[in-house]
Amino acid sequence: MFSTFGCYNTYYVSRQEFSKLQNSTIRQTTLNTLENQKILVTWNTRVYARSKGGKRYQVTPFNFKLTDSQLVASDRDLLLEIHGLQSYEVDHFSTWKTVGWVALGLALAAGAIVGVVFTAGKDKGYGN
């Protein structure tokens, strides 16, 4: 649940690599990114097809069909023309980025509290 609100690293893969994710008999595979990195994709990895207009369409790994003309993901009620797609993306949860942002938020909150405490005048109470 926490990973729903975390930070992600996005990797771009070719259509040929993305097509490996349509095999429903496997539950994980390794893809080569356009930057020549190897990334692991499992059934719960977030994968997307991005349209030429910039919209990201999430696809469930190992549960879609990619043909020469279209991408079909029935579980997401998705039917896209291949010629309308610009890129294929894989998002991996980034623990360190998420921890960094949380730590920064906590530090800012603590700094604000300390600032209020030190800039407050002496309280003489009511009626004094």
> SSE order in H/E notation?
EHEEEEEEEEH
Distance between the termini: 52 Å
- Widest sheet, order of strands: 1-9-4-5
Low-confidence stretches: none
> Which structural class do the helices and strands define?
alpha+beta
Which whole number gives the mean pLDDT? 87
Number of strands: 9
Task: Provide an overview of this structure.
- This protein is of the alpha+beta class and 128 residues long.
- It has one domain (9-117).
- The chain is 23% helix and 35% strand.
- It has two helices and nine strands.
- The protein has helices spanning 15-19, 95-119; strands at residues 8-13, 28-32, 38-42, 46-51, 56-59, 65-66, 70-73, 78-81, 85-93.
- It has a four-stranded antiparallel sheet with strand order 1-9-4-5. Strands 6-7-8 form a three-stranded antiparallel sheet, with no helix packed on it.
- The longest helix has 25 residues, at 95-119.
- It is elongated and about 80 Å long.
- The mean pLDDT is 87.
Brief account:
With 128 residues, the protein is of the alpha+beta class. 23% of the residues lie in helices and 35% in strands. It contains 2 helices and 9 strands.
